[in-house]
Amino acid sequence: MISSKEIIKGISEIPPLGGEGAYIDLYKEHHESIKKHSAGVLNESRDASFALFEELRFPTVALENYKYSDLKAPFAIDYGLNINRISIPVNPYEVFKCDVPGIHSYLYFVVNDAFYPVNEPRNSKLPDGVIIGSLNEIATSHPGVLKDYFGKLSTLKKDGLVAFNGAFAQDGFFMYVPKNVVMDKPVQLVNIMRSDVDLMANSHNLIILEEGASAQLLVCDHTVDEVHFLSNRVTEVFVGENAKYEHYKLENTHVKTTNLSTLLIDQRASSTVLGNVITLHNGITRNTIEIDLDGENCETLLCGMVIADKNQQVDNFTSIIHNKPNCNSRELFKYVLDDMAKGGFTGKLYVAKDAQKTSAFQTNRNILLNKTAKMRTKPQLEIYADDVKCSHGATVGQLDETAKFYMQSRGISEAEARLLLMFAFTNDVIEHIGIIALQDRIKMLVEKRLRGELSKCEGCVICQ
Amino acid sequence: MLEIKNLHANINGKEILKGLNLVVRPGEIHAIMGPNGAGKSTLASVLTGNQAFEVTHGEVTFYGKNLLELNPEDRSREGIFLSFQYPVEIPGVSMVNFMRAAVNEHRKYKNLEPISATDFLRMMREKKELVEMDNKLANRSVNEGFSGGEKKRNEIFQMAMLDPRLSILDETDSGLDIDALRIVANGVNKLKRPDNASIVITHYQRLLDYIIPDFVHVLYDGRIVKSGGKELALDLEIRGYDWIKQEVDSK
């Protein structure tokens, strides 16, 4: 096996970086090499994305949409980038054994920013017509499958992180579920960060559900080594008419990880989307989630939960756009923050002029366990239709002292009472998970996390 | 078992208990009656360790232990139980998990192993029958969406589960119709043994038709001003509290 040091030397053909200027120089110098290692479809908008990044740069707290995400510190670190696609000496299928009882998933890995070649026998039994694999490979072998979709939601989005991803991403996870095909098992994508030196990974995922298709995707973010990681991932999801899609994101990384994720979903008429983003342990996390309702009678439920302590920082920026009438959307986000943790939530809701009979509800509830933890929350409703039902509610509070005393009066210790109350607080988010085995597993992990037993990353939470 | 000597307690700087004395022995049922604002519920809160109240003077011993030094959970584990006047709703915590946690904490305090799943379920079933509690309630969150009567039944159910040495029933009859009252009182009576005791705090004599007290005390202005047998309660029912107030205030 090649040592990781050699791999990094490979990466280090590129001089160490610092600040966005270095990334701009890097692109100018090496864009040919980036393109050479990427399929044509992926290169089509690469230069345009780069030009946009040059203009937008990395987002700062001065921007309204990023005011709860302070990314200055993570972007000051010199990361390596594997633009020459040197393979990483790890076999995730050997390192991670999935033993969640009842979760029989189709299991895939993205190591840093590259899809890991499939050698899992059970993955060969995918339903007819379903294609899952490396975005770069499929863009090479079947460009027709993805050319109508790739970049349609992300390209030219006025967001520095998405533009940066558009310039640098060379691979990612691809899933295509044809018309009326129902995936019989959940699909699990484990993003693993693996390196001996500080590393940045940009990957682009593309998920296409045709009319009437149905799929559940569970994305786990996981770190192996104790170095600084920054991942900047963009996921585009196309949910066709009458299709049903569930997206779960479970983050359990270490404090030196910066996890930047943009999830862009396009929903067509009568489709259903359930999203649930859970941050159990992390360093700095920014989730941008944008769901476009582009047909009538769409159903959308977006949930999230954050448990953070120490200096952890989590910002969920959500945006649900009702373009068409008769759609229902609901949002439920809950945070438990301790120590110096910082949480941010934005619930942007846009209802277009003609999107009558829209029903949209948003709830963000937060518990601060001490005076140093901070939560900033902002509903942002822009409603241009006049026949709609919309509501929002945000609360920041402490644990219920009366309930705690009631429990103590039954002999339950204060610590245990606090734990039960925190657990109860997060419970309704967990109950919105459509995979029962995953619900059970997450309940267990949340309990471990609240007990402080999950203080460092100890193997993929799903696969350990 | 319980000895209260010259107990003074404040809430927000206001003195509510002003030198209360009471002795409770195993096998006894004490009723504490009195007008609104006399300090009845304050007594219950102080005995169970509610932090909102500050004890400024006096002592309370329970089987020789200084009760005031114990935290609320240890008081419970020592065998003191409070049936709340207003039971608290705890959304998201199921009755089953709540009770299992409580029972196991009590067992741990006695150096016993956690209860097995089968024994626990059997225990739940038996005790539920005692207060004719609906099976469905046990699967719900603690008190969430329970009616007034269901909440009070749930208190007595918890009392049965934890088998206290001293139970304090704070206005357990308030908000109960006559059938619920009978069920709750029956539960309490079935749990009565020579080695345990109860303090029944009530406004009205009505509950004492079902739970027959050995002693009746009148609490007024932070002190017990009159004690007697069960006939004192009947007397109060007929004559009200004014004559006692006058008696005390004229002194």
Structural class of chain B: alpha/beta
CATH architecture of chain B: 3-Layer(aba) Sandwich
CATH homology superfamily of chain B: P-loop containing nucleotide triphosphate hydrolases
Largest sheet strand order of chain B: 6-9-10-3-11-12
Overall geometric form of chain B: globular
Fold topology:
The complex is a heterodimer of chains A (464) and B (251).
Chain A: H1 4-11, H2 19-36, H3 40-43, H4 46-56, H5 72-75, E1 80-81, H6 92-95, E2 106-111, E3 114-115, E4 131-134, H7 135-141, H8 143-146, H9 160-168, E5 173-177, E6 187-193, E7 199-209, E8 214-223, E9 229-239, E10 244-252, E11 257-267, E12 272-281, E13 284-293, E14 299-308, E15 313-322, E16 328-337, E17 342-351, E18 359-368, E19 374-383, E20 389-397, H10 401-408, H11 414-430, H12 436-450
Parallel strand pairs in A: 1-7, 2-6, 5-7, 6-8, 7-9, 8-10, 9-11, 10-12, 11-13, 12-14, 13-15, 14-16, 15-17, 16-18, 17-19, 18-20
Antiparallel strand pairs in A: 2-3, 4-5
Chain B: E1 2-11, E2 14-24, E3 29-33, H1 40-48, E4 53-62, E5 65-66, H2 72-78, E6 80-83, E7 90-94, H3 95-109, H4 117-130, H5 135-139, E8 141-142, H6 148-162, E9 166-170, H7 178-191, E10 197-201, E11 215-220, E12 223-228, H8 230-239, H9 242-250
Parallel strand pairs in B: 3-10, 3-11, 6-9, 9-10
Antiparallel strand pairs in B: 1-2, 1-4, 4-5, 7-8, 11-12
Give structural notes.
The complex is a heterodimer of chains A (464) and B (251). Chain A has 464 residues and is α/β, with parallel strands linked by helices. Chain A has a domain at 4-294 and 433-450. Chain A has helices at residues 4-11, 19-36, 40-43, 46-56, 72-75, 92-95, 135-141, 143-146, 160-168, 401-408, 414-430, 436-450; strands spanning 80-81, 106-111, 114-115, 131-134, 173-177, 187-193, 199-209, 214-223, 229-239, 244-252, 257-267, 272-281, 284-293, 299-308, 313-322, 328-337, 342-351, 359-368, 374-383, 389-397. In chain A, a hairpin with a 2-residue loop joins strand 2 and strand 3. In chain A, helix 4 runs antiparallel to helix 9 and helix 10 crosses helix 11 (414-430). The radius of gyration of chain A is 21 Å and the shape is globular. The longest helix of chain B is centred in the middle third of the chain and has 15 residues, at 95-109. In chain B, the strands form 3 sheets. Chain B has a 6-stranded mixed beta sheet with strand order 6-9-10-3-11-12, sandwiched between helices. In chain B, strands 2-1-4-5 form a 4-stranded antiparallel beta sheet. In chain B, 39% of the residues lie in helices and 28% in strands. Chain B has a single domain, classed as P-loop containing nucleotide triphosphate hydrolases (Rossmann fold). Chain B starts with a strand and ends with a helix. The mean pLDDT of chain B is 91. In chain B, helix 2 (72-78) crosses helix 3, helix 4 crosses helix 6 and helix 6 runs parallel beside helix 7. Chain B is α/β, with parallel strands linked by helices and 251 residues long. Chain B has 9 helices and 12 strands. Chain B has helices at 40-48, 72-78, 95-109, 117-130, 135-139, 148-162, 178-191, 230-239, 242-250; strands spanning 2-11, 14-24, 29-33, 53-62, 65-66, 80-83, 90-94, 141-142, 166-170, 197-201, 215-220, 223-228. Chain A binds chain B through residues 400, 402-403, 405-414, 416, 420-421, 423-425, 427-428, and chain B through 48-51, 71-73, 75-77, 81-82, 84, 87-93, 97-98, 101-102, 105-106, 109, 141-142, 158, 162.
